[in-house]
Amino acid sequence: MPASAPNTKEINWLSQLELARLKQELGSKPQLSSVARAMRSHFTKVDEALCASDNREGCQPACKKHCSHCCHTIVYANFAEIAAAYIHLSERLTKAQMEELKSTLQASSHHLIKAYNAKEPQTITCPFLKDGACSIYEARPSQCRNTHSLNDYRCRQAYDEPSNTERIIPVVPERQEISRLMLSAVASALHSAKLDHNLYEFSTGLLSVIESPAVLQRWLKGRKIPTTQA
Ligand code: SF4
């Protein structure tokens, strides 16, 4: 873990190191186990780098458990993140719990389609939000790890008035940069391994895997995934 907050040069260096590590971990013919291992380590590295940035004076996010205004949005993730989330869930949930989750994601997917087609902005709640907290926290995708705010009051205002696009949430630019470059390292590593590295809507991507785990094998063979793409 870096001793102090990384500067731009260090962030670049960090992401280059991460790219090299991911390429080595994935190899030329990645397996599901190597993808899950690579993404677990990746999330740890991202969290460590973000934590170092947060430690600086004036850069501490106002975010805390049960403050979840930012979880009412569409989440995008690459398929390595979706695969890692699926492995995380399948190691923890019983068959019955997985079936329950499938129903929740199917209902959420119908709501998403309606929201896409609606004339007015709709409130979209992430299906993983349970009792005001993330139920997939350890395996949440990069978009969620990156999301932060220096002012929770502004987040509440944005949530209360979704049609007002003028509202600005104050953020830490270095934090954004760390996330952007680390995500780009994953995309480059997937590209090198000849895997689809596009972004997909997270919950419907995960639903497609829960409904048919064979989707993962198709992705590992370099095919695209038939779901909602960013
Ligand atoms: S995955 Fe978790 S952190 Fe991300 S939007 Fe959903 S509930 Fe929030």
Tell me about this structure:
The chain has 230 residues and is mainly α. It has one domain. The protein has nine helices and four strands; from the N terminus they run H-H-E-H-H-E-E-H-H-H-E-H-H. The strands form two sheets. A two-stranded antiparallel ribbon has the order 1-4. A two-stranded antiparallel ribbon has the order 2-3. Helix 1 packs antiparallel against helix 2 and helix 1 runs parallel beside helix 7. The longest helix is centred in the N-terminal third of the chain and has 23 residues. The chain starts with 7 loop residues before the first helix and ends in a 10-residue tail after the last helix. The mean pLDDT is 90. Iron/sulfur cluster binds next to loops.
Brief summary:
The chain is mainly alpha-helical and 230 residues long. Helices cover 57% and strands 4% of the residues.
Total count of strands? 4
- Class from helix and strand fractions: mainly alpha
Shape estimate: globular
What is the average of the pLDDT values?
A: 90
Major beta sheet summary: 2 strands, antiparallel
Number of helices: 9
How many structural units, i.e. domains?
1
Q: Provide the list of bound ligands, each named once.
A: iron/sulfur cluster
Radius of gyration over C-alpha positions, nearest whole angstrom: 18 Å
Cα(first) to Cα(last) distance is 32 Å
Please provide the ordered H/E string of secondary-structure elements: HHEHHEEHHHEHH
Order of neighbouring strands in the sheet with most strands: 1-4
In terms of DSSP E residues, the strand content is under 5%
